[in-house]
Amino acid sequence: MRAGVFICECGGNISGVVDVESLAGHARTLDGVVEVAVNQFMCGTEGRALIADAVEERGLDHVVIASCSPRFQGPTFERIARELKLGENAVAFANVREGCSFVHRDMPDKAQEKAKRIVEGAVARVRHQSDLPRQRTFLHRSVLVVGGGIAGMTAAEELSGAGLDVHLVEREQSLGGFMARLAKTFPTEDCAMCSLAPRLTSTAVDGHIHIHTLTEVDELTGPPGEFRVRLRHKPRYVSEACVGCGECIAVCPVKLPSHYDLGVCEQTAISRPFANAVPSTFAIEKKGWSPCKSACAVHTSAQGYIALVAEGRFEEAYRVASEPNPFPSVCGRICTALCESTCSRGEVDEPIAIAGIKRFVADTVGPTLPVQPAPVIHDDVVAVVGAGPAGLTCARDLAQLGYRVTVFEAQEVAGGMLRTGIPDYRLPHDVLQREIDQVLALGIDLRLGQRAGRDFTVDGLFDQGFKAVYLATGLQKSAEIELPGGDLEGVTRAVELLRELNLGGTPAVGDKVVVIGGGDVALDAARSVIRLQQQRGIDPDVTLVYRRTQVEMPANASELEEAREEGLKVEFLVQPVEILSESDDEDAAGPGQGPASRVTGIRLQRCKLGEPDASGRRQPVSVEGSEFELAADTVVFAVGQALVDDFAQGCEGLAIEGGQIRIDRETMMTTREGVFAGGDAAAAGFFTAIEAIAAGRRGAAAIHNYLRGERLLPVWNEVRDTARPSAEELDGIEIGQRVPMTMVDGLVRRADWAEVGKGYSAEEAVAEAKRCLNCAVCSDCGSCARACPSGAIDWDQRETTEEITVGAVILATGHRQFDAARKIPLGYGRHANVIDQGQLSRLLSAAGPTEGELFRPSDGAVPKRVFMLQCVGSRDVTSTGNAHCSAICCLFATLNASLIRQHYPDTEVTIGYTDLRAPGKAHEEYYRLVQERGVRYVRGRVGEILEEKDGSLRVHLEDTMTGRKHEEVFDLVVLSAGLEASDGTRDIARVAGVQTGAAGFIREDHPKLRPVDTQRTGMFVCGTAQGPKSIPDSIAQAKAAAARAIAMLSSGFTMTAAQVAASDPAVCIGCGVCETVCPQKAVVLTTGADAHSIVDPSICRGCGICAAECPTGAIQLGGFSDAEVLAEATLR
Amino acid sequence: MSKRFTKTPDTPRIDGGVLLFRSCLVSAEYPGVEASTKWLFERFGIEYIVDPEQTCCTGLGYYSDLIPIQTTVALAARNACVAVDGDHPVMSYLCSTCYAINKKARNILDVADYRRQTNDVLAKIGRQYDDRVSDTVEHKHVLDVIWGAHESVPGLVRRRLDGVKVATHPACHYCKVFPDETMGDNENFMVPEELLTPAGAVPTGAYNEKTLHCGAGFRQRFVNPSISLAVTQQKLRRLAEEQVDVLVHMCPNCHVQYDRYHDIIAASSGEEYPFVHLHVQQLLALALGADPEKVVGVQSHTQDVEPFLERIGARGDRRQRTTVPMTGTDTEDDGGARKKGTEGAQDKATESAPEKAAEGAPTASGRSARPQAGAR
Fold first, then answer.
1. What's the gap in Å between the CA of A1000 and the closest CA on chain B?
2. Is residue A427 helix, strand or coil?
3. Is B188–A828 a contact, with Cβ atoms under 8 angstroms apart?
4. How far does B118 lie from chain A, in Å, by closest CA?
5. Contact flag A824-B210 (C-beta cutoff 8 Å)
6. Do B208 and A821 touch (CB under 8 A)?
7. At B370, is the pLDDT very low, low, confident or very high (cuts 50, 70, 90)?
8. N vs C: which end of chain A shows fewer Cβ within 10 Å?
């Protein structure tokens, strides 16, 4: 080996600590060294000449450079070696700067010794270095630009100008970024939109730029030059047919704080942020389905009609409520209202009274709307057996689909269980009848008193020409009572008692009544008995007996409460053992002998709850020796219902299983072709009114499908994500309470059959509706679709993904404003008149919500005294952890203060600053100008901002010039919230695998030399994604990033790095550590039994982390082989 | 991000090794605070001791310029040795003065020269504050320890506080002296309210001048009473604006200042502040079913807390009382337990306190005319 050692003084950086001449002397003594030279700057022209001469004259084959870190000037010397035909790996580096002189300034003697060792090591290693293979990669001539703010748009335009294809991705619905929100820009005070709008337009029409809004980058893989990108496009729900007329905004009932206007005003769920938005298409903000809609069996958009009620639009609300459900008035009274149980508002205080609102709307609007007969489209006639909720709903849907329908009902009244099973005080018969009449008004033929199996047969219906039959006969019988004494006189069944009552009879009940059961039917029976007793003029005496506790009780808790108010006594954890009669007392006649004798009481037994069974309910276990007796002359059983299966006769091939009709759950068809079933009668588990209605709808769709051979996919068959406000959002909601519904007093109401709840007035319904939290944002009310003249509303849009390949990536994802609410004592978010500079910009913008009129939020008055506080969330390590200066706030506040002074000369503006920093071009001059405009600057810190009763703000200020503390009262306080990395910046940093630094900003590869490169080759950064900066700086950086991408892609190919890692599959055990530690994402693990790692040399930058972490030594880093490293360490 | 509340992050549960550091002010003024704390530790299953070797922290003396810092530091070093040598190194303070002065001493003792000087003195009593002690000892406010067990609270609630609006008075020497060591947000300390919300209490979160101090200022209460009470009144006004029912305390200095002077300030200004003062551990113990006298020690309060106790059902029919007894204490409720405290809690300024405490039944008619807390 003939090696030369070239020692750099680095202009004193090295020679100031290390004696370079002495070091050179030492180097000369080393084995294999034939030439040693020292220069002030070895990386300069002189240094290069020194090396070249020595190589030529002394015949060097290896070179050692004793200078700075190879990360700094490595490429320079590698290039020199390449030019001198030595080969890049003929160079070794002895880092005597960062590794020695920089860190040991205070101990020069030791530094000298260390420098010697470093040089010795480099000389020892260089002889082992060999040339490494390199690969060439071809580059895609297209660039992904992430972020559509001023930086992203500028970069895209530059790239397009160079003839490259650009994919410009923006997660919001329009390009424009933060600049689009500004009123004016400093220091020139020119309108922000005036300079932005032309760029928006030119970007929109540029043929090379593909704009993807409402889009996020999900995945970013592959080598530089061939990045594979997966884009996720979120649905707009508005097609390109949108002409931007804005009719939809006028009718949308959902109002939320405006994203674009930073919350200073409201926007609607369908919106376009500003007039010049690109693209100009509107978009609907829709998070999925609201919990109430998901919970409803027919997926009624409760959020939709509630939003309309809140605006007083009752008729439209009625249409939304009645479209999926022909019985809104009924359901507003007796529905189990799962929508309320799942309501997000319930997590804050009480759920919205959805049923109460629905009842109000249906009762108010329902009777006023005439129903027209539905046009008959199809020749087929369909028979529906049973006029309960399932049968009538099925009939309605079929009629609306254009079929002729005949409904057969065994009773002399329609309504099924709604009519015969629910007492008047809970569901007045006239309310039910009105909704039935509206269904029938569609042209449906109803035949009362027609019992299947008695008056007609199903087979006979087909003979009469019916093409399909829907069986919805319900469960009309009470289950058998299998208890000693069950056949005694005075033992009755709840279903039968209620039917007799509801058909106009007066069931006989005694003076002391025991009701057994815990469901709605049991409560209905108990409360009816109370009224019957009261009518007879006796004091009601009714005891409800249930074998579990109130928690397990299926009946509604509020209903139990109402029953108690009416005087119901309740015994939990008790079950019946035997019903007692006179004969039991005398113990003479055995049971079942002679005519049934009268009930005298009931023997009961206490229970406790055991382990949960398969259904998850805890089963009652009887307690031995706990039996007791209760006197009673009537015992009412409300324990299950059973099918009356007369119709099965005369219906060939119909199968009954488990007491219900067997159906196919897909097609709703029974085992008999053409016969369908639903509701309680069918074996599909339906048992509440709303579930019966849902069954009717499914039945109608199934019959249509059967008759027309079409595949109808009703909307309620699909499942969408349920949207809920986040825990943070719920925390911010003021705790309130439900608007109470007026109730008739318990002791008064039990005297008659009048309805218990009086319902909401219009004012109450509106007030209650305003409590809605708009979980899904868009409420699915459909108002925009009805208003849109071009039919652009498209509910079928779904999230889609797209894969693209690009050569380079520019990250321009920007910043977000610091959330000033985190500085609790400053009152942001608590005090109405504390806002931030972004919000003030919206208020001062001529194109803003106030058209440039400044007002204070609490009362709309023009503020006379304005205070601006600087450094909120910047230069504030103690309470926010943000050490950085946000760079723009001093001038941002100065600009907004200047605008206020010019438009409102009577308004005083004070700026409380930490230090006034104005280093940009013409910034200091602008600051002086604004001082002359009368803006007062106070160097001071604020302790706390207090709100006075009139909304003005008392500011506790410490003047740091005088050290005095004083208080001042202002009308408006504006916080200069600092800049932090945006969510988009944090997300893309994770997806792209680029490093971030303080406050989440993307870290550049080198702060001076590579300011727009990230540590990943081919990925560049610009604008506030890299750190806080002004608009001119963002634009300059964007152009620099574009230039870097153009330079990289213009050659058409690139070489892999010289020193890259490689994995030996024979040694690799597939542990995957390398994959997790690689900052470049260059290592992937194969799958399967012989899983091993593979390093992509076109991505690898030779950092060596994987090689250091590899437990088996399977990964070796080129240029850092064991031989080389050992030689350097052991000097052998 | 909520605008009014900030969530306190979870901290690891401390199961034992706790030295409950007794406080002179707690012992002399509100012994129920210490009793409530012990009662809560037992509910949460936290193993603790009270060590008779422990001395006063002397913080009050130091802050009143009566005791030199060297003395205070030496005593802190000695108490740390006591804790470590007694195998209960988690020193838990009932009083934020004890908390902050011991932490300050910890920092001073990390300076080699001061540690050497201190150890020269400690050598006379055979103790040494060495790395073993400094690395083992932990300084915690009692709330730090209780917060570690906060997940147990919902399952232990026996008395609902539904609708009771509580506000925190953050102790200055907890929140301001070592802001980086405060749990959660030192400018919006929420732990007391977060402990009480599982029982149904309504939190207040941030309010105007939440961080304003109580006005006590150690000797200021005595040498500058007009300034001291003006500050107290300022805060009372703010809390009245917030319509709170209870102001919860975490430091006996503040507790004394508010409880003893509340009625005096109200009477002299003619203003009404319709709420009561309780220590966090007292209110939490009440919510978990503790006896108002035997555990919580309400008889040592100057302010009339009877209407509040009635409101939360702590004064119901005696047969239906849901009190949970203290382990090892006499649980027999003979009705005579509600005698006035003998711990010297009487304050000359408020002669009504003992008189109402001696009553078994609800308060005398003159008092019931006051607006009942929270009856809005």
1. 18
2. coil
3. no
4. 32
5. yes
6. no
7. very low
8. C
Give the model confidence (pLDDT) of A485-510 as tens digits: 878 888 888 888 999 999 888 888 88
Of B1, B186, B202, the CB nearest to A822: B1
Of the ranges A716-725, B130-139, B279-288, which one carries the lowest mean pLDDT score? Answer: A716-725
Which residue in chain B has the smallest CA separation from A735?
B202
Q: Give residue-wise pLDDT tens across range A677-692.
A: 988 888 766 578 999 9
CA distance B128 to A551: 61
CB pairs under 8 A between A and B: 45
**Residue B329 pLDDT > 70:** no
Write out chain B residues lying below 8 Å of A829, CB-based.
3-4
- Closest in B2, B179, B211 to A825, CB measured: B211
Nearest to A947 among B5, B7, B208 (CB): B208
Q: Which CATH superfamily is domain A507-637 in?
A: FAD/NAD(P)-binding domain (3.50.50.60)
CB contact under 8 A, A830 and B186: no
Which pLDDT value is given to residue B363?
37
Asked if the domains at A138-234+806-813+982-1055 and A381-476+643-717 fall in one CATH topology, the answer is yes
Work out the percent of chain A whose per-residue pLDDT is above 90: 64
For A291-369+725-776, CATH number? Answer: 1.10.1060.10
Q: Point out which residues pair with A229 in neighbouring strands.
A: A220, A804
User: In angstroms, rounded to a whole number, what is the distance separating the alpha carbons of residues B258 and B245?
Assistant: 14
Give the number of C-alpha atoms closer than 13 A to the C-alpha of residue A1027, restricted to the C-beta side: 15
Chain A's closest residue to B202, CA to CA, is A735
Contact across the interface for B185 and A824, Cβ inside 8 Å: yes
CATH class of A816-981: alpha beta
* Chain B residues in contact with A878 (beta carbon < 8 A): 179-180
Among A735, A821, A947, whose Cβ lies nearest the Cβ of B3?
Answer: A821
**Would you tell me which CATH number, out of the four given (3.90.25.10, 3.30.565.10, 3.30.70.20, 3.40.630.30), belongs to the domain A1061-1130?**
3.30.70.20
pLDDT class for A589, splitting at 50, 70, 90? very low
Superfamily of structural domain A138-234+806-813+982-1055: FAD/NAD(P)-binding domain (3.50.50.60)
**What domains are defined for chain B?**
18-144 (1.20.1050.140), 157-368 (3.40.50.11810)
Q: Which is higher by pLDDT, B339 or B137?
A: B137
Nearest by Cα to B278 from B311, B307, B319, B249: B249
- B8 interfaces chain A, CB cutoff of 8 Å: no
| Class of the CATH domain delimited by A3-126 | alpha beta
Residue A886 in this model has a pLDDT that exceeds 50: yes
Least reliable range by pLDDT among A604-613, A900-909, A1052-1061? A1052-1061
pLDDT for A686: 53
Q: Is the peptide bond before A279 cis (omega within 30 degrees of 0)?
A: yes
User: Would you call the peptide bond into A714 cis, given omega within 30 degrees of 0 as the criterion?
Assistant: no
Contact assignment for B210 to A823 by CB distance below 8 Å: no
Of B1, B7, B209, which is closest to A944 when you measure between CB atoms? B209
Q: How does pLDDT run across A447-490, given as a tens digit for each residue?
A: 999 998 889 999 999 999 999 999 999 888 777 777 888 788 88
Give A-chain residues touching B186 at CB under 8 angstroms: 879
Q: Domain residues of chain A, as ranges?
A: 3-126, 138-234+806-813+982-1055, 291-369+725-776, 381-476+643-717, 507-637, 816-981, 1061-1130
Residue B22 has pLDDT above 60, yes or no: yes
3-class secondary structure for A328-391?
Answer: HHHHHHHCCCHHHHCCCHHHHCCCCCHHHHHHHHHHHHHHHCCCCCCCCCCCCEEEEECCCHHH
Task: HSE, CB side, 13 Å, CA atoms: give it for residue A327.
Answer: 33
- Say which residues have a Cβ less than 8 Å from residue A314's Cβ, sequence separation at least 6: A308, A361, A364, A365, A762
Helix (H, G, I), strand (E, B) or coil at A810: strand
- Tell me what percent of the residues of chain B surpass a pLDDT of 70: 83
Q: Per the CB < 8 Å rule, is B187 touching A830?
A: no
Q: Say if the Cβ atoms of A732 and B6 lie within 8 Å.
A: no
Q: How far is B235 from chain A (nearest CA, A)?
A: 13
What is the 3-class SS of A626-644, one letter each residue?
A: CCEEEECCEEEECCCEECC
